[in-house]
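Translate structure to sequence.
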């Protein structure tokens, strides 16, 4: 029986810089990531992929706002923006994976599941927006949009200003049974895209879309727990996790135990709230639920990390 890994990749990882934001640019970035995921598959892993969509949802929303203002078009609700981006990013990933499998002679398919993720309609996140979406802005532009468009904006980890929206905690992967069946059939499954389309249950028990963006690391962690994955990988912009990141006393880590990860996170000084902190929290939840091992590294080093050559491994106590 193959080992199962959940790999969470960032929406920002599909955008190299402000000069490479087009659909074709994102497709090429996805191609690079898929090459490294194919390495995992070739090494005997069955893989489920979760991905972010913060920048892409922001782009869709901005286009919608401009079209509504200049052309009288309807605006696109935030949950539908999530669905749109889930389909588009899933398409780029599955096509690149299928092409890479064909090049390598791997008899496997990649399938995207448009995935809803249940959240609590009373989650306090709806009153306290924290999830960055869209591109980076300078402070003046951010403050102007805050005044003109009613946005909530924050400075994001020293990289510029971004819009923030509600980010409730994921409770349930609605299409979980379908995802499990596809993994068992040997498919590479792209799921909980952008953290999943956020939905709540109304008074009749029916599902309804919610105006939010779920953290993709939290949703991928939930997925990893529910399918009892053997490995949870967070693919991000850095090769290893560091304490005191970006400071003179920065210290990169090869390994952490669950207890150490919890202690470092609790100190509140090592991991940026909009960056590494949710990744470490997602891994903590996975390991607390019985997960065996987790890895944080950048896409190009996944293969080396799986051989023990790099990356930061987080293990149970």
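Result:
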């Amino acid at each position: 029986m193959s080992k199962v890994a959940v790999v969470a990749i960032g929406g920002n990882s599909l955008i190299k810089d402000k000069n490479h934001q087009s659909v074709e640019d994102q497709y090429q970035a996805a191609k690079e990531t898929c090459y490294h995921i194919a390495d995992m598959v070739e090494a005997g892993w069955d893989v489920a992929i979760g991905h972010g969509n913060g920048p892409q949802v922001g782009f869709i929303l901005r286009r919608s706002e401009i079209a509504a203002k200049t052309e009288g078009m309807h605006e696109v609700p935030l949950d539908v923006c999530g669905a749109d981006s889930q389909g588009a990013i899933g398409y780029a990933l599955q096509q690149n994976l299928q092409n890479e499998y064909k090049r390598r002679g791997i008899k496997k398919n990649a399938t995207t599941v448009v995935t809803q993720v249940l959240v609590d309609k009373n989650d306090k996140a709806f009153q306290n927006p924290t999830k960055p979406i869209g591109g980076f802005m300078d402070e003046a532009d951010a403050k102007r949009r805050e005044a003109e468009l009613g946005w909530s904006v924050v400075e994001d980890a020293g990289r510029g200003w971004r819009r923030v929206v509600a980010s409730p905690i994921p409770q349930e992967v609605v299409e979980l049974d379908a995802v499990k069946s596809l993994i068992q059939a040997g498919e590479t499954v792209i799921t909980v895209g952008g953290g999943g389309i956020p939905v709540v249950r109304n008074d009749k028990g029916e599902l309804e879309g919610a105006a939010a963006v779920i953290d993709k690391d939290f949703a991928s962690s939930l997925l990893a727990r529910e399918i009892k994955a053997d490995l949870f990988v967070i693919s991000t912009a850095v090769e290893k996790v560091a304490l005191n990141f970006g400071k003179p006393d920065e210290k990169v880590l090869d390994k952490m135990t669950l207890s150490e990860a919890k202690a470092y996170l609790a100190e509140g000084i090592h991991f940026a709230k909009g960056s590494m902190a949710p990744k470490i929290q997602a891994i903590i939840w996975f390991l607390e639920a019985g997960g065996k091992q987790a890895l944080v590294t950048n896409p190009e080093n996944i293969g080396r990390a799986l051989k023990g050559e790099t990356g930061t491994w987080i293990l149970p106590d």
